[in-house]
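We close this part of the discussion by returning to an individual protein. Part of our work consisted of pairing the sequence of a single chain with a tokenised description of its backbone. What the numbers capture is local backbone geometry rather than side-chain detail. The amino acid sequence and the backbone structure tokens for this protein are reproduced below.
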Amino acid sequence: MLAVGTLFIFSSPSGGGKTSLIKGVLKEIDNVLISVSHTTREARSGEIDGQHYHFISDDEFNALNGENAFLESANVYGHKYGTSRAWVEDTLNSGNDVALDIDWQGARQVKAQFPNATFIYILPPSRKVLLERLHARAQDGSEVIDYRMSNLVREITHCSEYDYLIVNDVFEKSIRLVKRIIQASRLKVANQEVVYKNVIADLLGHGS
């Protein structure tokens, strides 16, 4: 399937800042839409169903997964997450770019289906800063934070599977770097051949 839009995958250890970074980039670049994942975990305070996540039951998730409705799915910290295949494909084919905020397990599944997608891994500048961020966002208790930190090494070992690596030390700088990656990815031949197929056909003498 030839997609007009470009697919961008963002991953990081929990607390690495990828979600805030994606939101910051989307405020400055047009035609990039972020996918809203389905999840079996309960909504946190302030989260809105359909905006932050699609909150569904375990049975509902399993049914959708059985119908091949997810482009990717993963079990992360005891909860299931999945990305709507139909939404991603429809959005790309409408000419918009898509950003996926997923972990390395999901990214690996997406790469098997969209090898030309752009994969970006976000790292915190240090273990100390990561721990401070996890405590500062006040979403998890100390046991959950300890568990996330214990998984840090296992998660980071997968960063070599990505195309780009950004250390999120200065937020504004990280936004600039991601914007450059998006702009460059849009100019890849595989994308431009679809966008400018009529121009290319005309130059080749195949136009009407």
Remarks:
- The beta strands are 7-11, 32-34, 38-39, 54-55, 70-76, 79-84, 97-101, 118-123, 164-167.
- The two ends are 25 Å apart (CA to CA).
- The longest strand covers residues 70-76.
